[in-house]
Amino acid sequence: MIIAYSLYYLVLSFNTTLPWEKCNPKWASKNCVDNFKDNFTFFDCKNDTVYYKCVDDGQCYLNFPGISCDSPNKVSVGYWNPIYPSQDFWNVQILNKSDDMNKTGYLVWELVLALFLAWVVCFLTLFRGVKLSGKIVYFTALFPYLVLFILGIRGWMLEGAGKGLYYYISPDISKLADSTVWRDAAVQVFFTLSLSYGGLIALSSYNKYHHNILRDTLILSLSNFLTCILAGLVVFAYMGSLSETTGLEMDKVVQSGQGLVYVVYPFAVTTLAGAPIWAIMFFVMMLALGMGTMMASVETLTTSLEDFFPLLKKTSKIKALTLAIICLLYFLVGLILCSQTGTYWIELLDEYSANWAILLIALLECVSVGWVYGANYFQIDVSTMIPKESVFMHKLHETLFIWFKICWKFVTPVLLIGLTIFSWVDSGPIESEYYKFPYWSHVFGQCLSTSSLVGIVGWMIYIFINTKYYTKNPLITLIRRDKAWRPAKDRNHKIVIEAYKRYENDRIIPAV
Question: CA 435, 181, 404 angle in degrees (round to 5)?
């Protein structure tokens, strides 16, 4: 859906003047402000005995007996809740947003069309297989860096950029006492790296056996960290400029999620010369980022289905049909996001799809690798995959795996258990400053999170019944390494078996 939004905004950006630059009476609210320089004052309006807050127009007035928002002789002292034109444009023109999640309303046809086009593009990209999609990923992964640097250079030159950067790099130590911050940080890392979502495993399955997977792991982790830092430096430069332009404090300017991408930044670019050009660049970048994530998600599902049902990859026509059905199902499910309550559903999915269930899956992965399969055997597997000519990586892997094994077996499980418990304790309906989600949405969200574990629990039940009543093997085999596992090709299998034997005889990880 993010791609659909970005595609819609991209089309609207091809104008001499951005449509969300000024408050248009057709869709603007009474507290819409597009000129923060002339006759504008921000006032927090906290003293209720002296001042009166008017919700209708977002202004603060001097209090007197019998005052109301309709009083003709009220005296304004400033705005306590000014709204950017981009905020009203987003809520009214783009979303046709309902004021309550219980009021689904109708489908916004522009969003339906944009979503359909997004899935058509996704299908055409993946239709020719992983070789073509792999080449396209080079563009979707690298192009955003180019745009990010261009936007950054422009943003760092703006007046007030230093204010935003200082706000970004100045930590609020008190937040470390908030368990929600730790949980959100962990979930964010899991999402950006696609940990426990299956994407990395599915895509890496296309690699050759002797692929330097340890090198790729280090590059991916480091680049993800540096990208997050760079994105923050770019975004907060514009936030600082916007704070300087509007006179609002940074905490009033900064928003997260959809508010940042489709409200704050779009309005920030309207303050720049050549605003449409900067808007086009930004939304093209968002499209590239969204397409990369979208392709990885679909590829993960199709790869899993094809591995479980080999018939699906027997011919190119069957593979294409499978892909088409998956894209169609995704589109149909996504129609609820095109309704007037679509943005509520996106917040709901964002909150609960990457929640405690992902942390629990990661915990099970750590226990499986560290204790059941065996961290030492896993180290041998990785060492046999690293090409022999990569001498440095072989030496580095011996050192890194000391830390890796400590994490997999002890540190990470303890942290994940703590974060999972915090997620349960702090659980409740989503609540913002202006709206609290209905309780049924929380129940649905928890069911959604739990559904992520259905495959794991279902397989555990199946394998237990199969082992106890059909194969009648000892149940202890369920928590032991499966010695029948082997690489697909015989020559690779021989290398692994020899390494296993040397380890089992000498109890020392053999050098490959």
Answer: 145
